Every structure is written in C-alpha cells, then in structure tokens.
Amino acid sequence: MRTHDSTNINRRKFLGTSGAAVIGSALALNAGLPNTTRASGTANTLKVGLIGCGGRGTGAAAQAVQADPDAILTAMGDVFADRLEESYAGLLEVVPTKLKVDKASRFVGFDAYKKVIDSGVDVVILATPPGFRPDHLAAAIDAGKHVFCEKPVAVDAAGIRKVLEAVKKAKAKRLSLVSGFTFRYDYSKRALFDRVLGGDIGDVVAVSSTRNGSDLWYHPRQASWTEMEYQMRNWYYQNWLSGDYLVEMIVHSIDLMMWAMGDKLPAKATGSGGRQVRVDEKYGNIYDHFAIEYEYDNGTRAMSFSRQQPGCSNRNTVEIVGTAGSAYVNMGTSNHEITGKNKWIYSGEKNNPYQTQHDELFASIRNGKPMNDGERMANSTMAAILGRMAAYSGQTLLWNEALASTQTIGPAFHEYNWDFKFKGLAIAIPGITKVI
C-alpha cells in the first residue's frame, strides 16, 4: 500500500550554525561507511579542495576522501571564518587521518575559491550558495580540476549559459564533473527509471511531482553584520543566491521529472506562485508555493507542485503515468513500484547515494574514463529556472526564449564585497514582473 512518507535525506540538516550541528551532520553521513580513513601521502594521492564549508560541503568533503584510499583534503575556503573552522572541527571528528589542511590552506573571503583552486588540488568540491556556482565552476574547469558540483548549478539563464561553456571545456580536457543531483545515484531509483525508460509503463503521457514541506532555518540579524553579510548568512531567502526555493530545493523533483522524460527538454512552461506565509521581510524575496506545468513537443505534460508552509500536510513523491501502467517514487525512501501490465516493487540493494556519487567520481578519475553530468545538471537547473520565470511573470514561456534571457538576478561577480549594498530584486508580482 502506498504511503506518502515524508522521510527524506534532508540536506537542510546540514545548515546548522553551531560546530556541533556540523559535526553531527558529518557523523550522520559517515554512519555505515567502510573505514577507509588511513593516512595518505603516496604518489597516487588525490588532493581535494573544499569551496563552501557549510554542512553540505562538510558532508561532501567527508564522503569524497572516503571514496578513495589515497584521497585527502588539503585546502578549504569559505567567505566566513567561523563556518570554515566549524567545518574543520567536524571533519576532524569524522576523517582525522584524511584531513591535511594546515592553517595556511584555510582561505577566507570572496576570493577564497581562487586560492583553493590554485593550492595544488586535483579535485574541487563546489558547495557555496548556488548564485556563486557558475563562476566557481568556470574557474575550476579552466584550471584543469575534476569537480563535484552541488545542485543547483545556477540561479538564472546567464549562469546556465556559463555553466554549459564550462561543461564543454571539461569534456575537451577529459575532466570528470559530477553533480549533486543525488537521486541519480540511488540504486532503487536507477532500477525504477531503467524500467520506465525501457518501456515497462509504455509511453510516458504525464508526470507529476509533489514536494510539500514546512519552513526552514533563519539567522537573526546581528548588529555587526553589513547588509551583504546578513543576506549571505540567510542566502536561502535571497533569490540572487538561492534561485528561490523552486530552484534550490524542488529542482530535485524536477530533475526526476526530466529523468522520466529521457532528459528531453520541455518546450514551454506555465506557472503560478506567491507568498502567503512568508510575509515577513526576513524571508527576503522568495515565494512559499509554486505550481508549474511543463509541456513537451509531443503533448506530454509534467506538473510540479510544492509549498513550504508550516502546519500543513507534507509529501515528497513523483508519479509517472504511461500507456501501459504507472510508476511511483517515494523520494526519500526505496519504496518504489510499477503498477499495470508489468507490476514491480523494488527489493534490491539499498545504498547511500551521497557516498555513491563520490565513489563513482573518484573511480572515474582513477580509471581514466571521465564522467560528465554537466549537460544534465544544467538542463534540470534550467527547467527549474524556467518554472520560476513563468511563475514570477505569470506568462507562458518557451524554453529557448528563457534560456536566451539576458536578465541576471544578482550583482556582477566582481562587485562582491562586505560593504556592497545590494537589496535584491523586488518581490515578483505575476502579470507585472518582467523576466525576459
């Protein structure tokens, strides 16, 4: 019997502000993994650099160095010194013999990413807020580094175009580029989508995803913070940093919808959304609910429904309807099934997809067979951006016109500094806000 279990591998757990929160998160990530934390330093050593030392970055770094017996972390960078030191303390608890980051290799500031990239590392983990991702990715690929790139990979179309250029360069340089679309590395979901794409439910005619959850973290403004620091500390609520929650979080569900469609691009999108609960200015300029309809050239529709409102029922599912059956995905579990002509319920091996994505990344580096998630991660992110643009404007938008948009939602990259007074875009009003 199907249940809408809201249990999920929740990355928000990694966004605590205390060292204990980061340590606890990293320990949770480490649970059940083989003990490969022997000291490294051979000629085969792969040096890893972490850019973005929040909880997600800390967890990714722990998984990266455990993916290969001769991988070590040698450099860390963040705009906030306290986040970097909390991350370091957390990693010291979890992977002490893999942590080789001396004081001189802990970089703080808006240029910390450059210093990590230039420190002699082989692999870079990009885990800052998404607004920085396109420039950080471009710099890492230009420098010839293998990359683990958290999702989403941009917050606007201009960023996507920059990412796609970096993806091309990575392929030309034979660099591995793995994305943080973790569910693509979940064995149970791979098994289900293999069946869907193999025709077990016939031709896909509709896809629907629902992700309803509650509110998230918030860090009260401190007297010593500039406006830029306040926004950076609360990056989730600033769409120039997060892309709005549709792009930052619901992109996972949209990625599965894209997967169900064989990663074909939707032709257009229509959407709605707004702020019913997030009315306080502390919530920046993001929405608290979205409903997006994507339409494909063959007439197939994919619908994304989501809200982040406390006190409401929660759900996190994807359902795929075909001409010969349906597929059901309970996102945070392995409870997946196919009904109809070819009934099936997953009963295979369960894995930690967060670890598997690093295992496969490092294996690809070792065997000289680069893997590249680049186009897929860019397209799934762009699908979420397209949905946001449609909802913000109230207009039906074509994929190509949205991707060509010259509108950026953040300041120019060279303008980042603590005294820069960027207030962000006004809260979008459908029918009035322009996005092209």
Relevant terms:
33% helix; 14 helices; 15 strands; 2 domains; Rossmann fold; Dihydrodipicolinate Reductase, domain 2; alpha/beta; disordered N terminus; 6-stranded parallel β-sheet; 436 residues; 9-stranded mixed β-sheet; 19% strand
Which blocks of ≥5 consecutive residues have pLDDT under 50? 1-41
Radius of gyration: 21 Å
Cα-to-Cα separation, first versus last residue: 45 Å
Helix and strand run? HEHEHEHEHEHEHEHHHHEEEEEEEHHEH
Tally the helices.
14
Q: What overall geometry do the principal axes of the alpha carbons give?
A: globular
> What would CATH call the architecture of the largest domain?
2-Layer Sandwich
Question: What name is given to the CATH topology of the largest domain?
Answer: Dihydrodipicolinate Reductase, domain 2
Structural class determined from secondary elements: alpha/beta
Strands, count = 15
CATH H-tier superfamily of the largest domain: Dihydrodipicolinate Reductase, domain 2
- Total domain units: 2
Spatial order of the strands forming the largest sheet: 14-13-12-11-7-10-9-8-15
Strand content: 15-25%
| Biggest sheet layout | 9 strands, mixed
Helix content: 25-40%
CATH top level label of the largest domain: Alpha Beta
| Overall pLDDT | 91
Account of the 3D structure:
Helix content is 33%, strand content 19%. It has 436 residues and is α/β, with parallel strands linked by helices. It folds into two domains: 11-182, NAD(P)-binding Rossmann-like Domain (Rossmann fold, 3-Layer(aba) Sandwich), CATH 3.40.50.720; 187-348 and 376-415, Dihydrodipicolinate Reductase, domain 2 (2-Layer Sandwich). The strands form two sheets. The chain has a nine-stranded mixed β-sheet with strand order 14-13-12-11-7-10-9-8-15. A hairpin with a 5-residue loop joins β12 and β13 (336-340). α1 (19-30) runs parallel beside α2 (55-66), α1 (19-30) packs parallel to α3 (81-94) and α5 runs parallel beside α6 (157-172). The termini are far apart.
